[in-house]
Design goal:
- The chain has 222 residues and is mainly α.
- It is 61% helix and 0% strand.
- The model has no long low-confidence stretch (mean pLDDT 94).
- Bound molecules: iron/sulfur cluster.
- Iron/sulfur cluster (SF4) binds next to helix 10 and helix 13.
């Protein structure tokens, strides 16, 4: 669907390149995807910093750590006891499969299901891991994306994350583009398309059905 590329261009022109996790290791991305659940990124980052400082930011080190030590280190991320158990189990799973090199050979639908089978890994977390740590061509459907597309009036089945996911994945060329699009949508959702949107300042207002219908700031002629 051709409308996604112009949307991405507008967001990129406004926010600039996001390049999430550009310098992170693949395991750090996995850890971040799990720890950021139900907290802010800055809290997750503090927890990751603690793991790094104690040299426990590798598959084997996390898999070998005791849950209490892990929980103490990741405390800034909240729900730390639960997350410690889940993180340890996730690391143990990756290690048991032969690490990233072996998992790289697994087809995306199977790999996705394997991650979904891990405790605490839902569709959003699984797709973040697949997109950013494995470079798979997947789009992360989250609350920001649902809200933005619905308000813009992009035609998709709003009741189905799978439909939105498939539509965007077929519209953009590769994993890099999909990862960047997700990051830009998050930036846009945090800054403009909040529960009470800041439509007059939004870079997408000219193409937004919500802005036109609800608050009359659509200036398609501009
Ligand atoms: S114009 Fe308003 S409703 Fe539309 S995408 Fe921007 S912030 Fe969201």
């Amino acid at each position: 669907m051709s409308m996604f590329r112009p949307l991405m261009r507008s967001l990129r022109a406004h926010f600039g390149p996001q390049r999430w996790w550009h310098d992170a290791s693949r395991f750090e991305i996995v850890v971040g995807a799990l720890l950021v659940q139900r907290t802010t990124w800055s809290n997750a980052e503090r927890a990751i910093g603690n793991l790094r400082q104690r040299r426990i930011l590798s598959i084997d080190a996390v898999a070998r750590s005791d849950s209490e030590t892990l929980a103490t280190l990741i405390r800034p991320a909240g729900f730390f006891r639960t997350k410690a158990v889940r993180l340890k189990a996730l690391a143990a799973y990756i290690a048991s499969q032969g690490g990233f090199a072996k998992l790289d050979r697994v087809a995306t639908p199977i790999l996705r299901q394997n991650f979904l089978d891990r405790e605490g890994v839902g569709p959003e977390t699984a797709d973040v891991i697949l997109g950013y740590a494995f470079g798979r061509k997947v789009f992360v459907v989250d609350a920001y994306a649902r809200r933005m597309f619905e308000r813009l009036g992009v035609p998709f089945d709003a009741s189905s994350d799978a439909a939105l996911k498939k539509t965007v994945e077929s519209a953009l060329p590769d994993s890099d583009a999909l990862n960047e699009f997700h990051a830009l949508i998050v930036a846009h959702g945090k800054r403009y398309c909040r529960a009470r949107p800041d439509c007059p300042a939004c870079p997408l207002r000219k193409r937004c059905g919500y802005a036109a219908a609800e608050i009359g700031v659509n200036d398609r002629s501009a």
